[in-house]
């Protein structure tokens, strides 16, 4: 190949961007300069199979069954990767692997050069072939052109490896079970989103080119008030730490554990990566555990644990002259229901009684099951007076004058009520419970259907 031709070839193969048109031009230039019938570029897969990527050959060669097969697999692949240039012809003393190559291309002469990566692994193969063994060119005539060609194709090898690495990373990110998106730290423009994050919103194309809040919170005109950016970067804009928080998605109620961090994006700008794991099941289990811990399984009323917790909270928030009344209900004759109809009937009565309590306006959100056949109510407010509590007690006693209809029959019973008042009778829920319990026993001594206040207990 002449020096002028080498310069022209170098101009065609200049630059780092590999174009198919340039490869075909180079194949034609080299093929013509050495007088061969054709040239081809193959790409090599991990399986060791060679797939035809580009080819250039004369019509005569194709008609004469001399040409580049669309794909092939050879035991000589490892040997080819170790060669700088392979030059073989029928007239020489060829080893089996060289003869195999000639037979694959139906050629009498063949020149080839592998394209390897930085680790010496073959990725592509450049081949020139001819039907006439006498045309085998000297190695010095093809070494420089093939060197230019393989260096040019090395860029494609690098780009291909980079693309595969990117696709592998994206595949990992898409299948981690974690939602991920990245936005510009300052403009909030979305730079990346993985599949699982994008799916509920219509796919990745819905995210790119938009602000994060435009997708996550349609109709919003600026950054979210709860955006944690100030917690993940210092005053100079340098990343600090990963910030963790929980978030509930508004349109379906799903819960996510969110991890936010600042980092440097590929172009040098500061970016904000947000990753989140679906913890809806965990939240539901936590809610169930909390419910089981704080609510009575039979009546669905809050239990004694909730009574103590909410009672102390109400006491701490009470402002004079506000009072807090604690009413303690004990059922007179409940044992007789169990004895007469069985424990299932007793449970049904307690459920019916709890519904009666919760339908009373003053007791809504205020009634608790203390345990067994005991119920407690916490009633607070500036307008609540002792007379209100006495009237409420009378109303409840009127209901107990009527029978409770059960599946097994009618049940008659009553309730004794003890009342304690904060702050006169105690400054804690436990103290109020103690006084109300004593007052309830005093009411029970007076006969069914009575109420006793802590202040009356003290006088007695």
Automatic annotation (TrEMBL):
Pfam family, one: GGDEF
Coiled-coil blocks: none
UniProt xrefs under Gene3D superfamilies: 3.30.70.270, PAS domain (3.30.450.20)
NCBIfam families to which the protein is assigned, alphabetical: GGDEF
Domain GGDEF as annotated: residue spans: 322-456
InterPro entries the record matches: Biofilm_reg_signaling, GGDEF_dom, Nucleotide_cyclase, PAS-like_dom_sf, Rev_trsase/Diguanyl_cyclase
Biological source species: Eubacterium limosum
CDD domains cross-referenced by the UniProt entry: GGDEF (cd01949)
Protein name, per record: Sensor domain-containing diguanylate cyclase
């Amino acid at each position: 190949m002449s020096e002028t031709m080498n310069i022209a070839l170098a101009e065609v193969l200049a630059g780092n961007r590999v174009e198919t048109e340039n490869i075909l031009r180079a194949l034609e230039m080299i093929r013509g300069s050495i007088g061969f019938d054709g040239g081809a570029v193959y790409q090599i897969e991990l399986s060791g199979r060679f797939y035809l990527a580009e080819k250039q050959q004369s019509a005569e060669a194709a008609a004469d069954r001399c040409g580049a097969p669309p794909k092939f697999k050879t035991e000589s692949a490892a040997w080819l990767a170790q060669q700088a240039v392979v030059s073989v012809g029928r007239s020489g003393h060829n080893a089996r692997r060289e003869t195999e190559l000639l037979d694959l291309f139906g050629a009498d002469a063949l020149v080839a050069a592998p394209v390897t990566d930085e680790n010496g692994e073959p990725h592509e193969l450049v081949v020139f072939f001819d039907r006439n063994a006498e045309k085998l060119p000297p190695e010095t005539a093809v070494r420089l052109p093939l060197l230019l060609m393989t260096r040019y194709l090395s860029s494609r090898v690098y780009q291909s490896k980079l693309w595969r690495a990117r696709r592998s990373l994206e595949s990992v990110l898409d299948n981690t079970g974690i939602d991920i998106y990245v936005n510009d730290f300052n403009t909030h423009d979305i730079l990346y989103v993985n599949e699982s994050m994008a799916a509920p919103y219509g796919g990745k194309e819905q995210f790119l080119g938009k602000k994060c809040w435009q997708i996550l919170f349609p109709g919003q005109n600026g950054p979210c008030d709860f955006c944690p950016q100030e917690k993940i970067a210092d005053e100079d804009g340098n990343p600090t730490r990963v910030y963790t928080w929980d978030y509930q998605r508004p349109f379906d109620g799903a819960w996510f554990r969110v991890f936010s961090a600042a980092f440097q994006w590929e172009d040098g700008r500061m970016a904000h990566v947000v990753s989140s794991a679906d913890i809806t099941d965990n939240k539901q289990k936590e809610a169930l555990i909390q419910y089981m811990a704080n609510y009575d399984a039979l009546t669905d009323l809050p239990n004694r644990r909730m009574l103590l917790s909410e009672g102390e909270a109400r006491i701490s928030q009470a402002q004079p002259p506000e009072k807090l009344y604690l009413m303690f209900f004990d059922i007179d004759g409940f044992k007789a229901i169990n004895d007469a109809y069985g424990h299932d009937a007793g449970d049904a009565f307690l459920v019916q009684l709890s519904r009666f309590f919760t339908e009373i306006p003053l007791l809504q959100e205020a009634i608790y099951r203390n345990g067994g056949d005991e119920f407690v109510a916490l009633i607070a407010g500036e307008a609540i007076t002792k007379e209100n509590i006495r009237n409420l007690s009378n109303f409840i006693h009127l209901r107990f004058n009527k029978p409770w209809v059960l599946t097994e029959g009618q049940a008659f019973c009553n309730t004794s009520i003890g009342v304690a008042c904060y702050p006169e009778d105690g400054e804690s829920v436990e103290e109020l419970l103690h006084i109300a319990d004593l007052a309830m026993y005093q009411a029970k001594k007076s006969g069914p259907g009575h109420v006793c206040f802590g202040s009356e207990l003290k006088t007695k």
